[in-house]
Specification:
alpha+beta, four-stranded antiparallel sheet, 33% helix
Length: 285
C-alpha cells in the first residue's frame, strides 16, 4: 500500500519544529524506519510530516559530563555503532548488531527507536537497563525523563503529541561493571521473541555488589528488575525461571506462547547474567 497524502516540512531550527507540531496533526520524521511502514500500512494518517534532519542541534553526538554519551535525535544508529565514543557504553555496542539490518541502521536513529517504543526493540531495553536520561522539548519547555519512566506501554511514551525527543544520554560504564545482551528471534534482524540486557557490578573482591536485568519482547514495555539477590542464588537457573513467571506477561501468538517466552527469558537471563559477572570480575582482576 501507499501512504495517504500528507504535507512535508523541513525546519532548520528546533523552535520551528515545535511550532509545526503545535499546529495540528503532525508527526516527527527522522530516519523513517518505523514511521514509513506505519504510513504505508495506513496505521497512521498524520496531516504533516516534520523532518528534523536539518536541525543542527539534533545532530549532536558527544561525550558529556562523567563520560556519558549524549546522542541527538537525528544521529543514525550506524554512526553510533561504528564510533569510538560508543566504547564508553559497551551495552550499546553489544545490542546494536541485533537492531534490524545494517542497511536499516544506516537510516534509523537511536532516539527514533526510543520514541517509537516497540516493546520488542533492543535500544529501549538498553536505555532502561542503564537508566538512561531522555530529553524532551515541548510547549512547556524542556524536561529530562529517566528511561524507567519514559516507556509507558506499547508504542506509548512520556512524550506528548506536541513534543519532540531531543536526545538521550547513556551513562558510561564504571570500573567493576560487566554487561550482557542476548535475544532470540525467528530470523536475524527480526524483533525479538524474548531478549535481555544485563549489567553487573562487583567489588574489589569480585563479590556481586549490584545487578540489573531488563527483559524485552516479554511485556508491553521493557521490564527492569534489580537482580542482585537472584545472581547470588546458588541455582541461578532456578532463580531466573521464577523471575520469568513474574515478569513475562505478554500474550502468546503464532510465534510463541507465554510459556515459551518464559523459557526463553529464563535461559537468556541465566546466560547473560553469568557473562556479565565474568566480564565484571575480569575488570577488577
Amino acid at each position: 500500500m501507499k501512504a495517504p497524502p500528507f504535507a512535508y516540512v523541513r525546519p532548520a531550527a528546533l523552535d520551528d519544529v515545535l511550532a509545526e507540531l503545535a499546529g495540528g496533526d503532525a508527526k516527527v520524521l527522522a530516519g523513517g524506519q518505523s514511521l514509513v511502514p506505519v504510513l504505508a500500512m495506513r496505521l497512521g494518517r498524520p496531516a504533516t510530516l516534520v523532518d528534523i534532519n536539518a536541525v543542527a542541534e539534533l545532530q549532536g553526538f558527544e561525550t558529556v559530563d562523567g563520560g556519558a554519551l549524549r546522542i541527538g535525535a537525528a544521529v543514525r544508529q550506524r554512526t553510533v555503532e561504528r564510533a569510538a565514543e560508543t566504547r564508553a557504553v559497551p551495552l550499546i555496542g553489544m545490542a546494536m548488531p541485533f537492531v534490524g539490518h545494517r542497511e536499516l541502521r544506516s537510516r534509523g536513529t537511536v532516539v527514533g527507536s526510543l520514541a517509537h517504543a516497540d516493546p520488542a526493540a533492543e535500544l529501549p531495553a538498553v536505555a532502561a537497563c542503564l537508566d538512561a536520561t531522555i530529553e524532551v522539548a515541548g510547549p512547556a519547555g524542556r524536561r529530562r525523563i529517566p528511561a524507567g519512566e519514559f516507556f509507558a506501554g506499547a508504542m506509548t511514551t512520556g512524550a506528548g503529541p506536541q513534543d519532540v525527543v531531543v536526545s538521550v544520554e547513556f551513562p558510561a560504564a564504571r570500573p567493576g561493571e560487566g554487561f550482557g545482551f542476548g535475544e532470540i528471534a525467528r530470523r536475524h534482524g527480526d524483533f525479538a521473541l524474548a531478549g535481555v540486557a544485563a549489567v553487573v557490578r562487583v567489588g574489589g573482591d569480585g563479590a556481586v555488589a549490584q545487578a540489573r536485568l531488563t527483559g524485552f519482547g516479554i511485556s508491553d514495555r521493557p521490564v527492569t528488575r534489580d537482580v542482585t539477590e537472584v545472581l547470588r542464588e546458588p541455582d541461578l537457573r532456578a532463580a531466573t525461571t521464577e523471575l520469568a513467571s513474574e515478569v513475562v506477561d505478554t500474550a502468546g501468538d503464532a510465534h510463541g506462547s507465554t510459556g515459551y517466552r518464559r523459557r526463553l527469558f529464563g535461559v537468556l537471563a541465566t546466560r547473560e547474567l553469568e557473562k556479565a559477572l565474568r566480564r565484571a570480575r575480569k575488570e577488577v582482576a
